[in-house]
Structures are given as C-alpha cells and as structure tokens.
C-alpha cells in the first residue's frame, strides 16, 4: 500500500477521534476502555483520580466512579493488571509470556528461591481469599532487596509477580489497598492462549487503534509504550519529519466532517501523554510538574491540558480544595490567543467539572 499523506489537521483529527474526544460523546464506560485499551491508575487526586478524570473527559457528567468499581468488582468486564485497568478480554495479550516472569536474573533468582513462600500465598488465598496483603503471613526465605520503598515488602512483591504470571488476580480495593484472590476464581476459564508473537502483534494493533496515528518505534514510557511496531499502514504528516503508522480503520474517515468539542484532560491522558508526539502533531509543550519544586513550575502541580476541536490550547492550573469544597483555578495558561467563544467553552467545562466533583468553582484564574 502507498504511503498515506496527511495534513497536520488531518493527523490531529485522527488522533482526537481515536481517543473519543470528538463529538458526540460516547455513552458507555466499558466501550470507552475497550477503545482506549487502558485507564491508568495513579494515586494523585489533586482534581480527581486520573482513571476517573479520563472517563469523565469522554463520558461527561453522566459518568460516576461507582460505574468503574462495578465493572471491576462485579461485572468483571474490566480488570486491574499491572497498575492499569484493561478490558477483561484483552488479558491474554498480557499473559502470553507469563512463564517468563520475572524476567531479570536477580528477580528470577529471588522468585525461584522463594518457591515455598509462593506456595504458602497460593494456599492461603485458596483457603481464605480474597485477602489484603496485610492478612497474608510473610514466610519468605529470601527478603526482597531494594534501595527504594519496596525494600523487604515481600508479600506485596510476590503477589505482584503472581499477578503478572496469571496465578493471582486483583479483585478490588478497600481504599487504596488492593484485594487479592486466585486468578482461577476471577478470570474467565475460556480466555484464549496466545503465543508471545501473536500477543505482541495484537497489542501493537490495539494500541494503534486507540491512538489513531503513532510512531513505529520510540522511547519506552511508564505504563504503556507509545510506539506500535509495524502495525497499520505507513503515513507521513505535512511539516513533520519522519514516517508514522496509521490505523487502517481511519483511512475511510480522513475526509469525513470533523465535529470537535472542548475537553479538559488528565495529565496522564493518552492524547497528550507522549510529550514528543503532542509537540510534533499538536505543537503542544507540556510537562507534568507535580515532581518539581513549586518555584520551578510553569503551569502548576497538576495542570490539565485543554483540548478545543483538534487543537491543544493550553493548561488549567487547578486543584480541589476539599475543606472549602471548591475547585480552585489558579490560572488558565493560554498557548494561543483564545476568542470569547473559546474562553466561554473552557469555563463551561470547568463548571461541569466542578459540578461533577460536587464542589463550587472559584479562583483568581477565572478572572479575565
């Protein structure tokens, strides 16, 4: 197939449409996660947990966090796996090479040297599960070595490896504490088994469908790589160097009318999470600054990217003041000059966000 030639506008619209951020909005949470392939879990809740904020950006205020809990803990249509929420039917894509976990020699030696500890955990879960990690005795023979926060957290470390191997599943949460059980009680018995090669090809295809347009190779990132191998078809974007991969399902829609909307995005949103791609396609410069000292921040602790149509226009520096029960907007950082209509739509989204959070809206950033 010939290399597809796209304008910058077409490439942006493909990316926005693939991420379900055009109009009209989708209406069903599980279908959203199936298209996006994941919701990233992150404990930061300066505005709202990222998974909920991503869902709200797509579904609007009809979305309630209880819907996510129900899909994870009752319907089992979604599953928590490796700090991400995935569609349950995608699980085989991430278990195809489970026998190779742990991959690194030192971790493998720890895992194999603690075979009796592993059996103790599985036996305890079989007899008493579901359980929190604090309810599982630490019978390890070799302590988990780390210079970080996981040092000697033996039960949790073993449980996380057993999840990656498909032997244990996360069945819910109590607050931030995960609840664990045998995977055989949670996962469907008829999940297909894939070879690692099949799984990789399908992961690349699924990721490209979610992104619309992506690079074949790139730098690994936390949670999910932003590149897609040889999935899709080759494409070039006017004014952007190098070749891209394009989701074939987007080809028939390249010339379709595009109906955009305004959306406030999580800093972990997949539309802008790959900072290099966001800069190349959207000319959008962004860094998550929560890890920087306050004096070094340009846009704020948990600044929300602002999408309008097919452009990322700026960032909103906001935070929920739970004591005062308000969403406090410190600043709206504009990357381009906003018209009155654009400003009104951004403010309307902020009002909707505050209403969804059940708080008022206030702050110096709202004053023009």
Low-confidence stretches: none
- Fraction of residues in helix: 25-40%
Please tell me what the overall shape is.
globular
Biggest sheet, spatial arrangement of strands: 11-12-13-14-15
Number of strands: 15
Query: Beta-strand level of the residues, as a percent range?
Result: 15-25%
| Overall pLDDT score | 94
Distance between the termini: 51 Å
Helix count, DSSP H or I runs of 4 or more residues: 11
> What radius of gyration results from the CA coordinates?
22 Å
Order of helices and strands: EHHEHHEEHHHEHEEHEEEEHEEEHE
Structural class: alpha+beta
Sheet having the most strands: 5 strands, mixed
Task: Give an account of the 3D structure.
The chain is α+β, with helices and mostly antiparallel strands and 368 residues long. The chain is 32% helix and 19% strand. It is built from eleven helices and 15 strands. The strands form four sheets. A five-stranded mixed beta sheet has the order 11-12-13-14-15, covered by helices on one side. The protein has a four-stranded mixed beta sheet with strand order 1-9-10-8. The longest helix has 18 residues. The protein is globular and about 65 Å long.
Topology:
Blueprint: E1 4-6, H1 8-18, H2 29-36, E2 39-40, H3 50-59, H4 65-73, E3 78-81, E4 84-87, H5 92-95, H6 105-113, H7 115-128, E5 131-132, H8 154-164, E6 168-174, E7 177-182, H9 196-211, E8 213-214, E9 233-237, E10 244-246, E11 262-264, H10 275-282, E12 304-308, E13 311-321, E14 326-334, H11 340-357, E15 360-362
Parallel strand pairs: 1-9, 14-15
Antiparallel strand pairs: 2-4, 3-4, 5-7, 6-7, 8-10, 9-10, 11-12, 12-13, 13-14
């Amino acid at each position: 197939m010939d290399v597809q030639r796209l304008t910058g506008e077409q490439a942006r619209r493909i990316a926005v449409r693939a991420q379900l951020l055009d109009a009209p909005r989708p209406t069903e949470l599980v279908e959203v996660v199936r298209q996006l392939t994941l919701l990233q879990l992150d404990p930061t809740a300066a505005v709202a947990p990222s998974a909920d904020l991503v869902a709200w950006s797509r579904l609007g205020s009809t979305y309630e966090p209880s819907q996510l809990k129900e899909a994870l803990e009752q319907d089992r249509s979604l599953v928590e796996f490796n700090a991400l929420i995935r569609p349950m039917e995608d699980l085989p894509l991430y278990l195809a090479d489970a026998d190779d976990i742990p991959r690194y020699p030192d971790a493998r030696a720890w895992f194999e040297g603690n075979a009796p500890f592993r059996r103790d955990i599985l036996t305890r879960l079989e007899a008493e599960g579901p359980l929190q990690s604090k309810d599982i005795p630490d019978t390890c023979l070799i302590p988990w070595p780390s210079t970080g926060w996981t040092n000697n957290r033996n039960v949790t470390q073993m449980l996380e490896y057993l999840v990656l191997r498909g032997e244990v599943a996360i069945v819910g949460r109590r607050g931030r504490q995960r609840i664990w059980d045998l995977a055989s009680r949670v996962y469907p018995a008829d999940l297909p088994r894939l070879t690692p090669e099949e799984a990789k090809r399908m992961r690349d295809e699924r990721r490209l469908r979610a992104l619309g347009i992506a690079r074949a190779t790139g730098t690994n990132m936390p949670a999910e790589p932003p590149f897609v191998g040889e999935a899709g078809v080759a494409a070039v974007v006017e004014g952007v160097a190098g070749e891209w991969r394009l989701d074939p399902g987007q080809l028939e829609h390249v010339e379709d009318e595009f109906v955009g909307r305004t959306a406030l995005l999580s800093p972990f949103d997949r539309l802008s999470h790959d900072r290099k791609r966001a800069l190349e396609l959207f000319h959008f410069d962004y860094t998550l600054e929560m890890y920087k000292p306050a004096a070094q921040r340009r846009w704020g602790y948990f600044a929300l990217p602002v999408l309008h149509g097919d452009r990322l226009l700026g960032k909103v520096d906001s935070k929920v003041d739970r004591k005062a029960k308000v969403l406090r907007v410190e600043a709206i950082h504009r990357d381009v000059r906003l018209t009155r209509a654009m400003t009104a739509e951004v403010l309307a989204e902020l009002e909707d966000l505050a209403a969804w959070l059940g708080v008022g809206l206030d702050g110096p950033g709202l004053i023009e």
